[in-house]
Amino acid sequence: MATFRKRGEYQWEAQIRKKGFPAQSKTFNTKPEAEAWAAVIESEMVRGVFVSRAEAERTTLGQIIDRYIEEVAPTHRGEASEALRLKAMCRHPLASMFLATLTSTDFAKYRDERLKGNPEKKIKPARPATVHRELGLFQQVIDQARREWGITLSENPLRLVTRPRFQNARNRRISTDEEKYLTAALGSGGRGDGGKFVEGTRNPWVSPAVKLALETAMRQGELLSLMWGNVDLETATAHLPMTKNGEARTVPLSARAVAILRELPRSIDGSVFPTTQNALKIAWQRALIRARKDYEKDCKTTGKELDPSFLRDLRFHDLRHEATSRIAEKLSNILELASVTGHKDLQMLKRYYHPRAKDLAKKLG
Predict the structure, then answer these.
(1) Which of 49, 81, 146, 238 is the most buried (most CB within 10 A)?
(2) Most confident by average pLDDT, 52-56, 80-84, 141-145, 336-340
(3) Looking at 317, 330, 344, 356, which residue is catalytic?
(4) 133 given a catalytic annotation
(5) How many CB atoms within 10 Å of residue 282?
């Protein structure tokens, strides 16, 4: 039977003690609320469907996010970026709510707020893909808590939330002229099409990394993790013990790729490219700016009309798209192409293969 007692001037506590079940208690603002709660709990006990919600009622979303960052995130390959995203999500007011009180409506409001932004707080709208990933992370965290941390919820509210649709597939390819200017900007110094001198990057590893990416379709992370011990220049192969999809892969090297590697000095730690992802990112962005400026100067000198898209919206990962398309011209067998790029799903491989219409027209004759 449930018992009720007044606590202070404004609260009522309901207590339930039933043989075979752990004691349950909860405090409410009014006695009717306490009686309604007790009736539900006793009914579940009688029907044999009762599960204790005590842990979910005293644990906030922020608390399980913190635990997820500490215990689960380190087991993932993208630990650093995942932890940063989770910490940012943990600063939202939603993180202060108790798990038992969270509903799909709360997360739907979070979704809409993130998509629209908040002009008053000078918060810019987030991209649909970003919000989609954040909702997915919320779902993972709550699922982990339900499976292994004793948090009892009837369901994960995220499973009822509609995710924002997005189309982030890219088909950006780098033209011959763009590659020429970029190579000059990344090198130790060079000249653009108009003969103007271009200052090179101070990081000596960026230029060969870009060139190797265009030859092998290797991801940025794969290039930075490549070790000399896994490179065999005699058989023209580079072994990657761990890739993004969790499997090892041996990448065949073209003659040009072998030549690029032969010219590189050997580092003490055995890394082929002993630099950091952030250093590579900064050097890449600065090189794009320098190359674009040199292109604009050459156009002004020669009277050539400026192409507004020239070297614009070009990302390092686009080199993988370009390399995949180039390699596809040499390997007609799509399974061979997939073994080079490491794609397990041919549909995903299709997103990286972007043949130019004019090239296909030449093949048709």
Answers:
(1) 238
(2) 141-145
(3) 317
(4) no
(5) 14
- The pLDDT, as a whole number, for residue 140 is 94
Active site residue 352: yes
**Which residue reads 């271009």 in tokens?**
198
The angle, 0 to 180 degrees and rounded to 10, between the axes of the packed helices 318-330 and 206-216 is 40
DSSP per-residue codes, 135-190: HHHHHHHHHHHHHHS----SS-GGGGSPPPP----------HHHHHHHHHHHSSSE
Highest mean pLDDT among 121-125, 285-289, 351-355: 285-289
Find the mean pLDDT for residues 97-122. Answer: 88
In angstroms, the CA 361 to CA 365 distance is 6
Residue 131: φ, ψ to 5°: -65, -35
Residue 244 known to be catalytic: yes
Q: Which of 146, 219, 249, 290 is catalytic?
A: 219
Give me the pLDDT at residue 168, please. 67
Active-site residue, selected from the candidate residues 68, 110, 352, 353: 352
**Residue whose structure tokens are 């006793």:** 42
123 pairs with which residues across the strands?
118
Say what the pTM is: 0.66
Phi, psi of 54, deg, nearest 5 = -55, -45
The pLDDT confidence band at residue 346, using thresholds 50, 70 and 90, is confident
Choosing from 68, 114, 343, 353, the catalytic residue is 343
pLDDT of residue 344: 76
CB atoms within 10 A of CB 260: 20
Q: What is the average per-residue pLDDT within 16-42?
A: 79
Which candidate, 342, 340, 346, 282, places its Cα nearest to that of 316?
Answer: 282
Tokens describing residue 47: 């029907």
- 194 pLDDT band, cuts 50/70/90, is very low
Residue 363 falls in the annotated catalytic set: no
Q: How far is the C-alpha of 355 from the C-alpha of 35, rounded, in Å?
A: 69
Asked if 196 is an active-site residue, the reply is no
CB atoms within 10 A of CB 192: 21
343 assigned to active site: yes
* C-alpha atoms less than 13 angstroms from C-alpha of 3 in its C-beta half-sphere: 6
Distance of alpha carbon 59 from alpha carbon 151, whole angstroms: 8
Rounded Cα–Cα distance for residues 85 and 82 (Å): 5
Contact between 64 and 151 (Cβ < 8 Å): yes
